[in-house]
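Tokens for Major facilitator superfamily transporter. Go.
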Amino acid sequence: MRLPPLVYLLGAVSFLMDVASEMAYPLLPLFLASLGAGPGTIGLVEGVAEATASLFKVVGGRLSDRLGRRRPFLLLGYGLPALFRPLLALAQSPFHVLLYRFLDRTGKGLRTAPRDALIAESAPKEALGRAYGLHRSLDTLGATLGPFLAFLLLPLLGFRGVFWLSALPALLAFLLLFAVRETPRPPSPLPPLALGHLSPGYRRFLLVSGLFALALSSNAFLLLRLKELGLSQEEVALAYTLYNLLYALLAYPLGGLADRVGLGRMVATGFGLYALVYLGFAWARTAFWALGFLFLYALYSAAFEGANRAYLATLVPEEAKAGAIGLYHTVVGVLLLPASLLFGLLWQAFGAAAAFLTGAALALGALLLFLVDGTGRRAYPG
């Protein structure tokens, strides 16, 4: 079964925007340091940015459901980063970078839930895994190409030149959105987005995902572990590029596999793979073994990310699809901060092995909660 053209179009938009974002993102800590920012300021900028994205996801989803429209939120969500890109290129202080990151992540928050809802509404239910898998694949290809372009262009153009050039793919992404067509629904008042109004399956999956989110420490810790085990900074950067590339190549075929074997089974497999990767990083004593588990992590990402979004889309009501998706992303996003904080404190106090073992235990707990309900019976649908 062919996917609708809209899915490919939204994938192309995400590809271009990720090229733009990832051309700038790896350079931001160095750029901030060149403006006089210390580690605390850099942490504040990124903390505010990620918290903003998480909080606005439920806002964008709810407003989209209320108005019965998706496209205006895509235009606003992708337009803000494109429009304010010059603010980053012209920044003279860390505050200017903070302001840009706030506007950029506001856009990401506003567009995420309406975009995911539009994919769910346009793709056949039996092809949701492939649809989200294709989107994640194109998105991650952009995240792979962006840092590579930054690596090539930085010696030639400097920070500001790369930032200016990154505006081009962002602008192209924005212009592509004018080809998006949707069938608007009439505006309607919505009940409060209370958990009691949502399905038991959604509430249960939100609980499982909240527990799993506490295991989702930043990928930076995986890279730090690689460096601790002997890789140079350049080798770590290359390993992360290969991880993204492998993720991008596997996401679409694994999305199709999820449609065949069942979205629930693929989500459960993702929980198990994550636990295995973290056990491996706790056990590894050489960079060779850690690299093997990093590439297994790419398999987890490709298997889980698309299937997870598709599975979520089957649990939410049609009249509040974007709002429920946004609530999910907000809850998970907010929990990522304490997850990384807990992981960092455990590493600092007891070593890397203790931190990774804790993450593995939380992931296994989420897997068991997903598989079995309170009476000990199997809980998830295929």
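Residues 302 and 310 are 13 Å apart (CA to CA).
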